[in-house]
Amino acid sequence: MYSLPWRSRVINLVAKTLSLILIITFLVTASPRPAQAACALKYTVQSGDTLYKIAATYSVDFKTLAEANKLKEPYLIYVGQVLCIPSGAEIPDTTPGVTGTTTKKVPAIAAIHMGSIAWVGVSNFNKERFYYVKVYAGGWSYWKYPEYQIAYVQTNKSGQFGSWFHLPDELEDVHTVTFCVKDAINDDVIACKIVTNNDYWYDRKSGYKSLQ
């Protein structure tokens, strides 16, 4: 059998190797890749925003929102951060922070604490949806304290509700409490409000005057 000179055989081997590499590279680049989730819009995080609040604004599950932005627990976000609101989100009317479109106001909560009773009201929530009203002793880091559920309510056709509620005896003399409204389906926090007990300051003031 005729044998190629060793140089020719080396050149032939290198050519075949390069050809194989080119074929593999072409197959890899030509193969379909998983499509990335499209963004319905871009949202710039504002002061006071939480991932739960933004998810509620656009009727998106907060875990879906976290995955779309590669966020891990505890799902921390910062002012000025641009988030991808995934496709399938409901786009409301007008809210600051949106790029390329406008959306509705974020969910809001107001509350008054007067000893054994409290008034809690919300606006800009999902319409005719059920929520839990829960209260915690303390302000910042409220989640470290025991949780008390004081109501199970439904918003009206305008996404609002407001009412007086009785508080647990353990919270009657507490200086500061936090009210949170949570989605009754998935227990997501929609909005929270830190409130000072008005009766606490009134009792202190009255006690001070009685010593005069």
Task: Write structural notes for this entry.
With 212 residues, the chain is of the alpha+beta class. It has 2 domains: 61 residues, LysM domain (Membrane-bound Lytic Murein Transglycosylase D, Chain A), CATH 3.10.350; 94 residues, Immunoglobulin-like (Sandwich), CATH 2.60.40.1930. The chain is 25% helix and 31% strand. It has 4 helices and 10 strands; from the N terminus they run αβααβββββββββα. Strands 7-6-9-10 form a 4-stranded antiparallel beta sheet. It has a 3-stranded antiparallel beta sheet with strand order 2-1-3. A 3-stranded antiparallel beta sheet has the order 4-5-8. β9 and β10 form a beta hairpin. The longest helix has 25 residues. It is elongated and about 100 Å long. The chain starts with 5 loop residues before the first helix and ends with a helix. The C terminus is likely disordered.
Q: What characteristic shape results from the CA principal axes?
A: elongated
Annotation, overall tally of beta strands = 10
Quaternary structure: single chain
- For the biggest β-sheet, the strand order reads 7-6-9-10
* Average pLDDT over all residues: 76
CATH class of the largest domain: Mainly Beta
What is the count of helical runs?
4
Q: Low-confidence stretches at least 5 residues in length (pLDDT < 50)?
A: 30-36, 205-212
Please give the radius of gyration in angstroms.
Answer: 29 Å
Number of domains: 2
Structural class call reads alpha+beta
The percent range for strand residues is 25-35%
What kind of sheet is the major sheet? 4 strands, antiparallel
The CATH superfamily name of the largest domain is: Macroglobulin (MG2) domain
